[in-house]
């Protein structure tokens, strides 16, 4: 086994070129930790914000990066059960990014974050299940009480989390309305399970929602964008509806649509899956059991983007992620 490995770190915040692939001594797991030999790394938009210094917390420089990886457990800390050794695992992002990072040939991770990869899934699929699906599950199902009679509006729907939300809505039997900025993704979103797709560069969002719901609006709205578009989402919501804001993709301020919210009796809820799902044991256990059941029954299968990046291409992979041209989870391999 090599006594050195590659990891990705950044010594200053900024654009993708601050990400550096560095060679370091092989790290050893401490108490409560394991070391996995990484086979696949799932990218997340939150990692762009972490790299830029615009995440919810600031990085301690030099900082590692990466919320999700899949691989084989090759070493364990002194108090970790030996039966973890050799297992195919992926991890939930249930830790501070200042504590752990998954971009590398190996990753030191807390054992509480690990889960065995179902036999039916590849390493690439294994690193694409937890963040997208449990983020959507925690908001739409656990908090929103998604019902088969509901209409759910899913914005930025070609992202891994948007596609996960579509599949979850499908499993419940509700109506999924997806949005995309460009018409070239409409067909693939319909094929991925969306009942309707609104191309926002060509169609008026509120008018189409009114039409598709016979004037009722969407009871649940799942949005990672925020910004000034929140007003339109509020007008597209059903009376008594809930808008989940789980991201900050818009660089613009997000004015609160108070008048519309009052008139339509809306709940506009900020949703951070880290404390509400991944770092809360009861919620994490519930969500994991639900998701694994859906996977075993063949009702959910993660969609992987067609891109092929290696660890040495990490800056290019981040640029690609920021281009918003992907469809599904961007996964790179060492």
From TrEMBL:
Record InterPro entries: ADH-like_C, ADH-like_N, ER, GroES-like_sf, NAD(P)-bd_dom_sf
Keyword annotations: NADP, Oxidoreductase
SUPFAM superfamilies on file: GroES-like, NAD(P)-binding Rossmann-fold domains
One Pfam family it belongs to: ADH_N
One of the record's GO molecular function terms: NADPH binding
Source organism superkingdom: Bacteria
SMART domains: PKS_ER
Domain Enoyl reductase (ER) positions: 14-332
Transmembrane segments: none
UniProt protein name: Zinc-dependent alcohol dehydrogenase family protein
């Amino acid at each position: 086994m090599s006594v050195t490995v590659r990891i990705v770190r950044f010594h200053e915040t900024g654009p993708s070129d601050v990400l550096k692939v560095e060679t370091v001594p092989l790290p050893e797991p401490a108490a409560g930790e394991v070391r996995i030999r990484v086979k696949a790394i799932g990218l997340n938009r939150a990692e762009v914000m972490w790299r830029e210094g615009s995440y919810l917390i600031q990085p301690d420089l030099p900082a590692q990066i990466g919320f999700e990886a899949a691989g084989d457990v090759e070493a364990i800390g002194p108090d970790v059960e030996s039966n973890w050794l050799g297992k195919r695992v992926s991890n939930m992002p249930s830790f501070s990014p200042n504590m752990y990072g998954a971009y590398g040939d190996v990753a030191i991770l807390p054992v509480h974050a690990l889960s065995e990869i179902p036999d039916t899934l590849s390493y690439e699929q294994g690193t694409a299940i937890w963040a997208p699906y449990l983020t959507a599950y925690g908001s739409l199902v656990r908090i929103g009480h998604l019902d088969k009679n509901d209409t759910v509006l899913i914005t930025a729907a070609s992202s891994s989390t948007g596609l996960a939300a579509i599949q979850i809505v499908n499993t419940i039997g509700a109506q999924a309305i997806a949005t995309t900025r460009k018409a070239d993704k409409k067909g693939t979103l319909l094929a991925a399970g969306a009942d309707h797709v609104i191309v926002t560069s060509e169609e008026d969002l509120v008018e189409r929602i009114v039409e598709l719901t016979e004037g009722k609006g969407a009871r649940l709205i799942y949005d990672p964008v925020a910004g000034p578009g929140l007003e339109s989402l509020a007008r597209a919501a059903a009376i008594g509806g809930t808008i989940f804001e789980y991201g900050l993709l818009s660089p613009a301020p997000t004015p609160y649509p108070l008048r519309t919210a009052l008139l339509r009796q809306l709940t506009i809820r900020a949703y951070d899956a880290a404390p509400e799902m991944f770092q809360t044991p009861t919620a994490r256990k519930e969500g994991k059991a639900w998701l694994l059941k859906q996977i075993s029954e063949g009702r959910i299968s993660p969609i992987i983007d067609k891109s092929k990046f290696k660890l040495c291409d990490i800056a290019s992979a981040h640029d690609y992620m920021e281009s918003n041209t992907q469809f599904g989870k961007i996964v790179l391999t060492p």
